[in-house]
Every structure is written in C-alpha cells, then in structure tokens.
Write a structure and sequence with these properties.
By secondary structure, the chain is mostly helical. It has a domain of 111 residues: Cytochrome c-like domain (Cytochrome Bc1 Complex, Chain D, domain 2, Orthogonal Bundle). It is 40% helix and 0% strand. The protein is elongated, with a radius of gyration of 38 Å. The chain starts with a helix and ends in a 28-residue tail after the last helix.
Length: 288
C-alpha cells in the first residue's frame, strides 16, 4: 500500500510538471492573439468574467453605502459622468462611439442596465485591470465617486432631454468641482488659467519689447530698406554702410558690392553683427 501511494504521488508530480511546461510553452510561443479586435476563446472569456465578477462582489460587499437619494448628489454626479464616462458608457439617445466600439471586453451601456451602487463605487474608484476602465480614485475623492454611483441609479430612467438638463445644471467636473479638491493659491496670486494657457502658446505676457530707434545715414549714402530687419519692434544693431573710397588716377573702379552686402545673419532680429572693417588692398594699386 505505501508503494502504491508513493507511485501515485510520483505520477501526479510528473503530470503537474508536464502541465506547467505546456502552459509556459503556450504563453511563450505567442500563439494566443491578445489583440482587442479578436475575441477570447469561450473558456478564457468565461474564466475572466467569473474572476472579475467574484472579485468585485467580494470587495463591494464590504462597503457601507451612504444615502444616495439626495437629488444634489445625482445632479453633481451627472456632470462628472458626462465628462469622464460618456465616451465609453454612452448617454441616452447616443450612438456607439469610436471608443466604445474599440474596447474589448465591450464597456456596458449604462443607459440600458442598472449597476448596484456599491459595485459601481468600487469599479469607478479602483478600475479593472486590462479592460480600459481606469481607477478614478487616484484623482477623485470618495464623496464625488458616490455621487456618480447615485447618478448611475437614475441614468437608465432618463431620456436625452432629462439627461442634458441634469448635465447643464451640474457643477461636476468644473474647476475644483468633482474631479479633485480645489487647489489653493498663495495670497495675492490670481487663479488665471486662461492667461497661463495663452503664455504656453506664444503670448509672452509681461515682456517689454524695445522700440527700434531711428538712425541716420552718412551724407551721400542712399537709405537702405529696414523692413526685412524689423521684427515686431525687436531692437537690432545695424551694420554700418561701407565708407566710400577713392581710386588712383587711370585705374578703373572695381565693384565692391560683395563687401557692402548686408550679412544673411542680419535677417535674424536681435543679433548684433560686428562692424565690417575696410579691406586693405596692398597689391592692387587702390588707395582706401
């Protein structure tokens, strides 16, 4: 008898080892399609669905549900639902969205099915792994999550007009409304997010630009066009025009235009260009 028992245990151990290796080989092979556009096999889906439901029930059952009949709770929760949940779980009279179509498992249409309050609270707060449902508890306090759970008790009873009226009268998801605590600012500092956003997009408030001062030209030198160098009032030091020079008798004048051309860098506002020095022609017979 003891021999048979040891033999049975050895057999079970071998079979268990083979099963573990088979599962590991299956996972490592990558043969299972994890894409959201390919459904799970029935056994896998049933296993995951049972695991999800039992996990939520076991934890939500320990929660103490507050009074959710208060209309103020429902109204406040409507705003947060509209801002945070509607894209996946839809609203009355609303067609499926790109998001709701693309998620798998498909998010439930909460306008057509009721969710028990404690379970709704737990799922909103903690999310669900590998499902696209985020854990809103990382950014929302419990009070506001309960308000959303209260709204979900009423959502299946609403038509499109009633839903919209609740959303428009809700303070949820306004600044410091339902998503997080309102944040405090130091004394004397204004809460002006509009200006801050504008600063990020090029509206440099508070920067004082110097007006370009008029400058004079030497006698006999034609004025040059400053339009290209004048960038929105930014000050730029101009490169002085080259001084005229004389030629020895009998020597034809040569074209000095390359030396008097404004440098390309002069097109960039705010850059100070060094003064151009006259060239010293020692061997060409010209006197400067």
């Amino acid at each position: 008898m003891p021999f048979v028992t040891r033999k049975s245990l050895l057999t079970l151990s071998v079979l268990s080892g083979v099963a573990v290796l088979a599962v590991a080989g299956f996972v490592w092979s990558g043969i299972y399609n994890i894409g959201a556009d390919d459904q799970h096999t029935r056994p896998v889906y049933a296993l995951m669905e049972t695991l999800r439901e039992r996990s939520i029930e076991a934890r939500a059952g320990k929660l103490k549900v507050p009074d959710l009949k208060d209309s103020a709770r429902v109204t406040q929760g409507a705003g947060n639902y509209n801002a945070m949940c509607m894209g996946c779980h839809l609203a009355p009279g609303m067609e499926a969205t790109e998001m709701s179509k693309g998620l798998y498992p498909a998010p439930p249409n909460l306008t057509q099915e009721a969710v028990e309050a404690a379970e709704a609270f737990w799922v909103i707060k903690h999310g669900i792994k590998a499902s696209g449902m985020p854990a809103w508890g990382k950014s929302m306090e419990d009070e506001y999550i309960w308000n959303m759970a209260a709204f979900l008790q009423e959502l299946p009873k609403l038509n499109a007009q009633q839903y919209q009226a609740l959303v428009e009268s809700s303070g949820g998801h306004s600044h410091g409304g339902g998503e997080t605590k309102p944040h405090e600012h130091p004394e004397g500092v204004e809460d002006d997010h509009g200006d801050a956003a504008a600063d990020e997009h090029g509206d440099m408030k508070g920067m004082v630009m110097e007006e370009t001062k008029p400058h004079t030209h030497p006698a006999g030198t034609p004025p040059h066009d400053d339009a290209a160098a004048d960038h929105s009032g930014m000050k730029m030091d101009k490169t002085p025009a080259a001084k005229p020079h004389s030629h020895a008798p009998g020597t034809p004048p040569h074209d000095d235009s390359p030396s008097t051309t404004k440098p390309a860098a002069d097109e960039h506002a705010g850059m100070v260009m060094p003064e151009t020095q006259p060239e010293d022609h020692k061997n060409d017979g010209h006197q400067h």
